Amino acid sequence: MSCMMAMLFAPKVKQFRDAIGKSYWFEFFIDDLPLWGFVDVPFSQRFDIYLDHHFFEHQIHWFSIFNSFMMIIFLTGLVSMILMRTLRNDYAKYAREDDDLETLERDVSEESGWKLVHGDFFWSPRNLVLFSAVVGTGAQLAMLVLLVNILAIIGM
Phi and psi (nearest 5°) for 66? Predict the structure, then answer.
């Protein structure tokens, strides 16, 4: 790559000063060498290209938005219906009178799902303070590693 040097004479110096005074400029680096560029757009009109009305004339996809909301409402209703049915059956089973002890024992023996393992999972650990300290330290270390990686990716 060759580098050419040019002398600036009076008309060019005036044109250069006008470009600095009336236009905005940009700067970039190639091999750690700064390069400046001046654009012949007045400073007051530099954002007009971004505020172009043709850019904002996109059609809004109302059907897609409506379809997404209806899907969310349908899935929320489905999950709540299943949950309500399960809770209603459980409440009815445990709200029976104690005189029907044989039926209650049969229903309890037929339990499934989380009811079978709730005693195994929902207990506090023996060393709760140590466990919370280890989890807290692990969270801090995870956030530190994540932050360092993000800063390395963006080059800081």
Answer: -60, -40
